[in-house]
Amino acid sequence: MLLALAVFLCGWSLSSSATVTGGGRMGAISWDYERMMNQTIRALNSPAGIAMDANGVVRIGYAGKRIGQIAMTETAAIGLGDIAAVAARSVNPAMIALMVGTLAVEGLQRCMQSQSGWCKPGQVNKSQGDAGFNGQGWSGQLSGGPPRATGDSPQSACQAVVDAFSSYWKSTGFTAGAVTPRADGSYYCPLVWPDGISYSGAVIGSDAACVSGYVQSGGKCVPDPSVKVDPVPVAYPDVAAAWNRQMAANPMGLPDYWHAMTPDEQAQASANAQNQPAQINGSDTVSDPAAKTSTDTQTKPDGTTETCTTTTGVRVQARPNTSATAGDSPLNYQGTTTTTRSCPSTGTTTTTNGQDSGDTGRQTGGGPASGVTGGGGTAPKVELKTCGLADTGPCKIDESGTASYAEPAVAKDKMDTADTQLKSKLADIGQTRPDQFGIGDVVKPLQGTCSSFSYALPKATGVDSMDIDICPTIDATRDVVSWVWLVVSALVSILLVRDAINGA
Q1: Could you report the per-residue pLDDT of 243-302, keeping only the tens digit for each?
Q2: Helix (H) or strand (E) segment spanning residue 309
Q3: Angle at 449 (CA atoms; ends 444, 452), nearest 5 degrees
Q4: CA separation, residue 330 to residues 33, 115, 138, 296, 410 (Å)
Q5: Judging by DSSP bridges, how do beta strands 109-110 and 220-223 pair with one another?
Q6: DSSP annotation of 145
Q7: 262 burial class (0-12, 13-18, 19+ CB within 10 angstroms)?
Q8: CA–CA separation, 202 vs 190, rounded Å?
């Protein structure tokens, strides 16, 4: 349990601190932005939905030097319908727990026999879904002699009145129009003639008695609790519509639903999110009166030299990007550079240059970011020439200007020497060998080297040293030891095999 909680908190922390970065440039002016995702969720009233507010900052630079930053808030609006579509199909326990209370107002409840997981109570009266149904009976009468007719709802009573009229006059072709409410609580029932026009109608009033399946309780007719009806499954669109109605009436509860969603559900609901223009927090302008300073030496007319100083000041003003590229880059920029050159002999000259990034961000068709060269963000046109197509010539490699290859002499000599040595080794490998094969090819005697040595004698002997050579003895001993080693090893192997077979 603690491990699961730790994993959840870790994932929550990562999702809360996730950032999106980007940037661009306009001549020597550059910008880099960092945006926090899903930082604040708030409800929208009109139209109903939620807004994801993401705070961020844009850092402005000039010629590699930071000159300031601008704070901003971006907003993405998510429509209520997109959230409803996800909520209706959610199997997330946290979401279902919230929806039980919300959908209970709509008469929906969880059930096992529905594919959507939601049901509505079954009808205890067939007219229960008619307009004006309140559990009481309704009745009315057309003038001209037909009897009074009754029904379980204003519309069913209207149909009964028309049927009684047709039966009384033994005529066909009359139909009942849709009832309309009157100020006194009654309904008007139009009698539609065979030509499709209503020339008259009847007033449908309410009776005190409750209809079938309903009983009196608290001064009104309510469903009879003793009547058992099976719940009716509700399809996903009806669940979404019921949830949508309740949230439209109470959008303040939407953030609770958003936080209860899984990351996958949030991604589905926000797939059609609409980016709103960014809001700049605080000043929209940064500046540096001495963003770049340099000195140089110039020659005066009299031949002497002097040192001049050039200072460049920068002012950048940001504004919200209201174009379709706002999702890629939230702000647009207007930059002004003022270059001042001061020389002792000529005084000071000032030059001002203005640039505008246009709409920053990725352009239609996936082209480069606009504003790279300034002046409204128009990227330079690049012409590509293609070869190898039906209407173009074959592809060729342009080798003009390529120096001819000259093999180094030293490298060639080394390669020749290595080749000669390799051929000599191959010749040795190909020599014939004797066809005889003996035990000596299997058992090699112990290998070693031997040489004689001199032993110094005492001076009294009159001989300086004596040569001692025991190599013949060592050679014979080595052969004997080799065969002894072979025989002993064979015997030990045989004994081991025997013991293994006997299970020792």
Answers
A1: 999 999 989 999 999 999 999 999 999 888 888 899 999 999 999 999 899 999 999 888
A2: strand 305-320
A3: 140
A4: 9, 43, 63, 40, 63
A5: unpaired
A6: S
A7: middle
A8: 7
Q: Where do the DSSP E strands lie in 193-248?
A: 198-210, 214-217, 220-223, 232-233
CB 239 within 8 A of CB 124: no
Q: In this predicted model, what pLDDT tens digit does every residue of 174-223 receive, in sequence order? A: 999 999 999 999 999 999 999 999 988 999 999 889 999 999 998 899 99
> Residue 280 in 3-state DSSP?
strand
Q: With 0-12 CB in 10 A as exposed, 13-18 as middle and 19+ as buried, what is 307? A: exposed
Cis peptide before 190 (omega within 30 of 0): no
| Alpha-carbon distances, residue 107 vs 104, 181, 210, 480 (angstroms) | 5, 25, 21, 107
Provide the token pair at 49. Answer: 């939905």
Are 119 and 231 spatial neighbours (Cβ–Cβ below 8 Å)? Answer: yes
Distances (CA, A) of 385 to 83, 342, 366, 393: 49, 48, 20, 11
Which tokens sit at 168? 């009384």
Both tokens of 229, joined, read: 């009806």
Long-range contacts of 486-494 (CB under 8 A, 24+ apart): 486/443
Q: Which residues contact 348 (CB under 8 A, 6 or more apart)?
A: 340, 341, 342
DSSP code at position 494: H
Other beta carbons within 10 angstroms of residue 154's beta carbon come to: 27
Residue 196 and residue 76 in contact, taking contact as beta carbons nearer than 8 Å? no
Give the model's confidence band at 62: pLDDT under 50 very low, under 70 low, under 90 confident, else very high.
Answer: very high
Q: Is 38 helix (H, G, I), strand (E, B) or coil?
A: coil
Going by their DSSP bridges, the two strands 40-44 and 49-62 should be labelled as antiparallel
| Orientation of helix 93-104 relative to helix 236-249, angle to 10° | 70
CA distance 258 to 248: 15
Indicate the average pLDDT of the chain: 80
CA distances (Å), 450 to each of 139, 474, 482, in order? 136, 8, 17
Contact 110, 97 (CB under 8 A): no
The strand order across the sheet containing 118-120 reads: 109-110, 118-120, 232-233
CB 157 within 8 A of CB 151: yes
